[in-house]
Design brief:
Length: 166
């Protein structure tokens, strides 16, 4: 799984209190599942709850939530595209007038394309999220169209003028 580490890197860089105390950030993968189907491929999808815990946090809670929301727009955009306007949840234990422990939970998925190597073994490629062009100003999103024939990538484009004829 790659998404937890990318979010960890962002939070350590973006949240002022975590830059100086990275040990106050912990992450856990809960309720992990594998989605897969029969059909001649071992490709799979990780599905899990990411629990982020920030301990003894003395800054503004917005300094945690806003980078997470921006990360979701780029790394798990489907959480912002459905009917549910709540892309993640949180809990907080107020320790005193200045500090709190904050726990954030996000339902994530990661698609992995598995292909057989010549001579044996497998290659696993974590696939990038597809974006609908939505998101937030200042958050990098890209439209990418891909066409697969079985497990082989036949064509792709990120041309904004591309229009599907299907």
């Amino acid at each position: 799984m790659k998404k937890p580490e990318t979010l960890r890197s962002l939070l350590l860089a973006a949240v002022p209190g975590l830059k100086t105390k990275p040990e106050n950030l912990a992450m856990f993968v809960d309720k992990g599942r594998i989605a897969a189907r029969a059909g001649g491929t071992l490709s799979l999808e990780y599905r899990y709850t990411l629990n982020i815990v920030v301990q003894d946090y003395a800054g503004a809670v917005n300094d945690i939530m806003i980078p997470i929301l921006a990360w979701i727009a780029d790394q798990q955009p489907d959480l912002l595209q459905g009917n549910d306007p709540e892309p993640f949840g949180f809990e907080s234990e107020l320790l005193d007038a200045d500090t709190a422990d904050v726990s954030i939970t996000i339902e994530l998925s990661e698609a992995v394309r598995v292909t057989a190597k010549d001579g044996g073994g497998y290659d696993a490629t974590h696939l990038a999220e597809l974006h609908d062009g939505g998101g937030f100003d200042g958050v990098c999103c890209v439209n990418l169209w891909q066409l697969f024939l079985r497990d082989d990538l036949v064509a792709q484009t990120s041309d904004p003028a591309f229009v599907s004829t299907a």
